[in-house]
Write a structure and sequence with these properties.
2 domains; nine-stranded antiparallel β-sheet; 2 helices; 9 strands; 28% helix; 33% strand; HslJ-like_sf; Hsp_HslJ-like
Length: 141
């Protein structure tokens, strides 16, 4: 091979690597600065009037409502991997069913290890370590 062909291969390879790195670093942007509304937690649905929400900011801070209490935590996103630190929240009392849903949501956040966003619906799916879907959220309108 001549020098031009080798140079072209090297430049092409570097370009592919750069695009690959950029696509992995951009992944997660689709999660950030969107308020997500829980539709299902561990296959049990949710109480509609108990608005359980999640907002992940660009700096990795995350907050929302468990349905009764406001919470704060931090999220780490790397490719399709997603983890949350344990949530800290206010301590208001609500109906038992709402409190139960809130605890299940906080537990789902702590168990989250990865995520997917369904292209057709834009829904966010949180997955546990085994890949099982543990929560489904939609963009809040």
């Amino acid at each position: 091979m001549n020098r031009i062909a080798i140079g072209s291969l090297v430049i092409g390879f570097v370009a592919v690597l750069v695009l690959l790195v950029l696509s992995f670093s951009a992944r997660g942007d689709e999660l950030r600065d969107v308020t997500w509304l829980a539709e299902d937690i561990n296959g049990a649905g949710v109480i509609d009037y108990a608005q359980t929400t999640l907002l992940i900011k660009a700096d990795g801070s995350a907050s929302g409502s468990g349905g009764c209490n406001r919470f704060m935590t931090s999220a780490t996103i790397s490719g399709s991997q997603l983890t949350f630190k344990p949530a800290a929240g206010t301590r208001m009392m609500c109906a038992a069913a709402v409190m139960d849903q809130e605890q299940k949501f906080f537990s789902a956040l702590e168990q989250t290890r990865s995520y997917t966003i369904e292209a057709a619906t834009g829904k966010l799916f949180l997955h546990d370590e085994a890949g099982k879907i543990i929560a489904r959220l939609a963009r809040e309108k």
